[in-house]
């Protein structure tokens, strides 16, 4: 069976993997929707908004640090900046986090039987007030900076989000 639409698989915590279909692409990023109406907005591979969860990410703000720029930089890549998260339940606006991102290694990943050579980036996020310390990981195409796979934490109240792009959007 060939799926004509861009798709991704999403696993939240220890739950089952689900399939999300691309609903739209605009200047805010790509919007993906599941059968049970969970919406995920991705901007350059990073989750920046959710809908349909018990604790939704309303917004994410950080400097414009894009993986397509990072793959072209001189080695070693290391960036440090602040990012701000806002949530709906309970309401919390502009949670300030310190972020460090670095290139870890070159890897070969397999998605649906197809191998891809990618760069692995680690993003360490910390908020001392809440005691939130986590690492996100992004597997990025070294040619165009497209994020094929990621493991992201978007809230201290939600488990890890594991994403694999199973069919890339036509851009």
Explain what this protein looks like in three dimensions.
With 171 residues, this protein is mainly β. The protein contains 1 helix and 12 strands; from the N terminus they run E-E-E-E-E-E-H-E-E-E-E-E-E. The longest helix has 4 residues, at 67-70.
Strand order of the largest sheet: 5-4-3-2-1-12-11-10-9-8-7-6
- The total count of strands amounts to 12
Largest sheet: 12 strands, antiparallel
Give the H and E element order: EEEEEEHEEEEEE
Structural class: mainly beta
> Please, what is the oligomeric state?
single chain
Portion in strands = over 45%
Outline type: globular
**Roughly how many Å apart are the termini?**
23 Å
Radius of gyration: 16 Å
Arithmetic mean of pLDDT: 92
Low-confidence stretches: none
Specify the number of helices: 1
**Share of residues in helices:** under 10%
List the defining traits of the structure above.
mainly beta; 12-stranded antiparallel β-sheet
Topology of helices and strands:
Blueprint: E1 7-12, E2 18-26, E3 29-34, E4 39-43, E5 46-51, E6 57-61, H1 67-70, E7 78-87, E8 92-111, E9 114-127, E10 132-141, E11 147-152, E12 161-167
Antiparallel strand pairs: 1-2, 1-12, 2-3, 3-4, 4-5, 6-7, 7-8, 8-9, 9-10, 10-11, 11-12
């Amino acid at each position: 069976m060939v799926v004509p639409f861009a798709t991704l698989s999403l696993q939240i915590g220890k739950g089952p993997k689900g399939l999300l279909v691309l609903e739209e692409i605009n200047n805010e990023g790509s919007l993906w929707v599941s059968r049970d109406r969970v919406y995920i907005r991705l901007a350059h591979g990073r989750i920046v908004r959710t809908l349909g969860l018990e604790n939704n990410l309303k917004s994410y703000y950080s400097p414009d640090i894009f993986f397509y720029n990072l793959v072209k930089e001189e080695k070693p890549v290391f960036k440090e900046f602040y990012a701000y998260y806002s949530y709906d339940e309970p309401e919390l606006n502009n949670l300030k986090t310190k972020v460090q991102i670095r290139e870890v290694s070159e890897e070969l990943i397999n998605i649906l039987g197809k191998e891809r050579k990618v760069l692995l980036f680690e993003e360490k996020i910390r908020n001392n007030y809440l005691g939130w310390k986590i690492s996100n990981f992004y597997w990025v195409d070294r040619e165009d900076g497209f994020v094929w796979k990621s493991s992201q934490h978007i809230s201290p109240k939600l488990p890890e989000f594991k994403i694999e792009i199973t069919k890339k959007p036509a851009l």
